[in-house]
Amino acid sequence: MRKRKYYLRLTDAEHHLILQCLLEYRNKLIAQGKYTDGVDKLIVKFSKVK
C-alpha cells in the first residue's frame, strides 16, 4: 500500500517562520548535547522548497 503525500501551501512569512523555529530548536538540541539529525533533514527539505 502506498503512503499518501500531503502538500502544504505556505506564504513566504510562514515559510520563514518555520525555518527560523527549526533553527532555534536545532540550537537548543546542540546546547543540550543531543543529536540533531532529524531536525537537520527537515531544515534541508525546507531550504530547497520555493
Key structural traits:
mainly alpha; 50 residues; single chain; 66% helix
Summarize the structure.
This protein is mostly helical. It has two helices and no strands.
Please explain how this structure is put together.
The chain has helices at 12-32, 37-48. With 50 residues, it is mainly alpha-helical. The protein is flat and about 35 Å long. The mean pLDDT is 92.
Alpha-carbon distance between the termini? 30 Å
* Helix content class: 55-70%
Average pLDDT: 92
Q: How many beta-strand segments?
A: 0
Q: Could you spell the SSE succession in H and E letters?
A: HH
Reconstruct the topology from this structure.
Layout (H helix, E strand, L loop, with lengths): L11 H21 L4 H12 L2
Helix pairs in contact: 1-2
